[in-house]
Hints:
The complex is a heterodimer.
Chain A: E1 11-12, E2 15-18, H1 22-30, E3 38-41, E4 58-62, H2 63-71, H3 75-78, E5 83-85, E6 87-91, E7 98-102, E8 112-116, H4 117-129, E9 134-137, E10 142-148, E11 151-156, E12 161-164, E13 166-169, H5 176-180, E14 185-201, E15 208-214, E16 217-223, E17 234-242, H6 243-250, H7 254-265, E18 272-288, E19 292-293, E20 296-298, E21 304-305, H8 313-333, H9 341-369, H10 374-389, H11 391-401
Parallel strand pairs in A: 1-12, 2-3, 2-13, 3-9, 6-15, 13-20
Antiparallel strand pairs in A: 4-8, 5-8, 6-7, 10-11, 11-12, 14-17, 14-18, 15-16, 16-17, 18-21, 19-20
Helix pairs in contact in A: 1-4, 1-8, 8-9
Chain B: H1 24-33, H2 35-38, H3 45-65, E1 80-84, H4 92-97, E2 101-106, H5 109-122, E3 127-130, H6 133-138, E4 143-149, H7 158-167, E5 169-180, H8 184-197, H9 214-221, E6 226-237, E7 242-246, E8 252-259
Parallel strand pairs in B: 1-2, 1-4, 2-3, 4-5
Antiparallel strand pairs in B: 5-8, 6-7, 6-8
Amino acid sequence: MTLSDLNTPDIDVDLLIIGGGLVGSVLAVALENTPIKTCIIDKGEDIDLSDADFDGRAFAISASNKNLLAAIGLWPVLEKDASPILEIRVSDGPSLLALHFDHKDVGDQPMGIMLENRHLRCALRDRLSSSQRARVLAPASVEALVNAPGGVQISLVDGRVVRAQLVVGADGRGSQTRAQAGIKLTRWPYPQTGIVCTVRHQRMHMNIAHERFLPSGPFAILPLTGDALGVQNRSSIVWTERADLAHVILDLDEDAFRSELMRRFGDFLGNIEIIGSRYAYPLSLQFAERFVDNRLALVGDAAHGMHPIAGQGLNMGLKDVATLAQVLAETYRLGLDIGGSQALSQYAKWRRFDHAAMLLATDMLNRLFSNDIAPVRIARDVGLAAVNAFPPIKNLFMRHAMGVSGDVPKLLRGQPL
Amino acid sequence: MTQQSCDPTEQNTSPQPTSGTVAKDEIARFAKISDQWWNTEGKFRALHELNPLRTKFIRDHIARHFKRDPLEERPLRGLRVLDIGCGGGLLAEPMSRLGAHVTGIDAGATSISIARSHATLMGLQIDYRHYSPELLANDGEIFDVVLAMEVVEHVADLSEFLSISSALIQPKGAFFLSTLNRTLKSLALAKLAAEYILRWVPAGTHDWRKFQKPSELAAYLRPLDVHVQDLKGMTYSPMADTWCLSDDLGVNYIMYANRSL
Lengths: 417, 261
């Protein structure tokens, strides 16, 4: 392809976002009050996301990402469906030693917020459908990307041509955008599967999250808002299981699945009942060898995928978005090239440390806790006890998990761009 | 891009676009040589790193002076901006994207060619000329804003340069200058370290004796009815590997002045 083959674009924007999932959509919404014009293209059909056959997935959103949602104006819509996490109780299998994190130790903000996938998606879809600056093309997919004067020209499969100064790959773990740019991926699969479902329980959860380190992997109980009755009686379960056992468990009938779940859950919330579907996710650690390329930036799972042990996957993606949005807004408002190497390396440099630290930490946590070897168990119990005994260390962990330390992008501090 | 070069010494090797229909093979050909000025990791790396900083200083002062919102889409719209010593167009391009009608002049014919082809690559309309401030003054041209970034340390006759440049500013217009201070610190950092040790800029780029103290520049400008309004240092922080605006004027500094009449 040569420059003379370039067509007049049908759509001329500043930024093209490939992938209209949570991370890509939040980026478009975050840029709405800047002069940057965006376009999202997404493969998906326009499904009815508020369908009653509900999607049981939920996310623990960190305090700093709650600030992001507030700064971009989504929080008022989401608030009624958000369940704050006020305490986290971490226990190590049968051992009595446990870590206890209370939000009151570090301030008056909750440790995090539980939000269901369907509520986030509905809020984003409604917001984008009335947006002046962002347009959504779906279903649509990319056929080819070529460099064009001052930007990139993207041909879509349906024949339309989009021109943009920068392309953002927000197309998930199996990112085509990343593959087409020739960016290598380092990937280590874990011999574990994540089982996700939602339960209704007899007693109230009191907004306490529980994380248990069982020999096959972490098991988390995360407080959701109540059902129609309004009591705090629903929780989201993230259950890590050995991959070979997981498919056996997933195939069990309703009663057998429930009793396997009860064995791990316990009876402290009374009887439990499973509502909605069971989901299974093979787990892996993966990261792109670089997050930027010529007029391309990767965000979210396209850049990095980690173990869900600390519930940081979406949180890291949203931090990518907050960082990239700030770099792009500042670059654009200085009249500089938003797809230029200077802006892109600023983004990559800003995120590099956080990515590396988080990938390492989640991987080590999983390796440390997903076994039942006696010396390791004793060592980690001593470690847990030590962390508990020294408030400054514990607070540092908490502040990092809450995302409030370091050189924090404006949106994560709740400030507008 | 309708302006033809008026300099008879300029060879016909540079593109002479007369309309938006620039030959596409020219774009591809000139994309290659633009690398020198536009390679952010190359010889002009330090300038690229300074660029967002000085652009912000300029944008914010112009916005305040002309009563615009600096964060809106094109805060410099409608303003005529002259970039003296524009080089490859590192500053002229952002000024153009911010909405200004930009004229860029440079003594180097090659730089002007590079600036032209890069602007075409970026889809920007900038009037680049291989020209001097004297010739512009003879033509009776006048601008709302005049920029002379990293230029005064290279001119032969500073007093002459400043009086001609000042005459190109509209009454109540703005003048921006940036240069290097003549201090022991600038001798150590900007001259010896940057040229010979870190090799940020080619050796021999600067003659330290031509560096100006801010007070000396202000003294040249005052009789020309041009008065300094703001002065900031541009300092490098080695730990963070970033440049920032500061009150340390010891090495690089940037000045904003107004012409009163």
